[in-house]
């Protein structure tokens, strides 16, 4: 995979990880309730679940591209519509959402278990990855390239949520984020809408 194409992959993976939702709320809750390490445990377990969905999506997309190209196009458009819906939802969220999560007593094991469950119990991740990875998966893609795609999704997801857990373990960070939640939601919404348009436009070169 060319480096420029990988940078595009990394950018859209980061966009997906940073979008507010149940995953962010879960990491916030464990960080606020148990401190830095439960938050980090939740983040790493969540990344494993994301990696599993990314792996399934890469395999599935490769097969669909080869055998049912028309179905692949329909699936891609459905993924783009989902991204657009996420973007509109973020734009309408205002100050509310995951940044208002409160903490509850927790342990590393509980945090890791919930981190994995939140990822695996969210089938919408499949839709997100279909829209995302349809831009990068090709019929002739090598096993190493597929592994790079999956690894990139995992590492970026883990890196973002670990950063959230470490940052929010400092008491002054969360109020700062809460005060700017509407701007974060607006930025995320615009980026997701832009990604939806990029998906409709066709695969990246």
Q: Explain this structure to me?
A:
The mean pLDDT is 77. With 205 residues, this protein is an all-alpha fold. It is built from nine helices and no strands. It has one domain (3-201).
User: Which regions contain 5 or more consecutive residues with pLDDT less than 50?
Assistant: none
H and E order:
HHHHHHHHH
Shape: globular
The helix content is over 70%
Report the end-to-end length measured between terminal Cα atoms: 10 Å
Total of domains:
1
Q: On the 0-100 scale, what is the average pLDDT?
A: 77
Strand portion: under 5%
The whole-angstrom Rg is 17 Å
Number of helical segments with 4 or more residues: 9
Topology, number of strands? 0
Structural class: mainly alpha
A few lines on this structure:
This protein is mainly α and 205 residues long. 80% of the residues lie in helices and 0% in strands.
Task: Summarize the topology.
Elements: H1 3-18, H2 22-34, H3 36-67, H4 69-93, H5 108-120, H6 124-133, H7 143-168, H8 173-179, H9 181-201
Helix pairs in contact: 1-7, 1-9, 2-3, 2-5, 2-7, 3-4, 3-5, 3-6, 3-7, 4-6, 4-9
Subcellular location: Cell membrane
InterPro entries: LeuE-type (IPR001123)
Pfam families: LysE
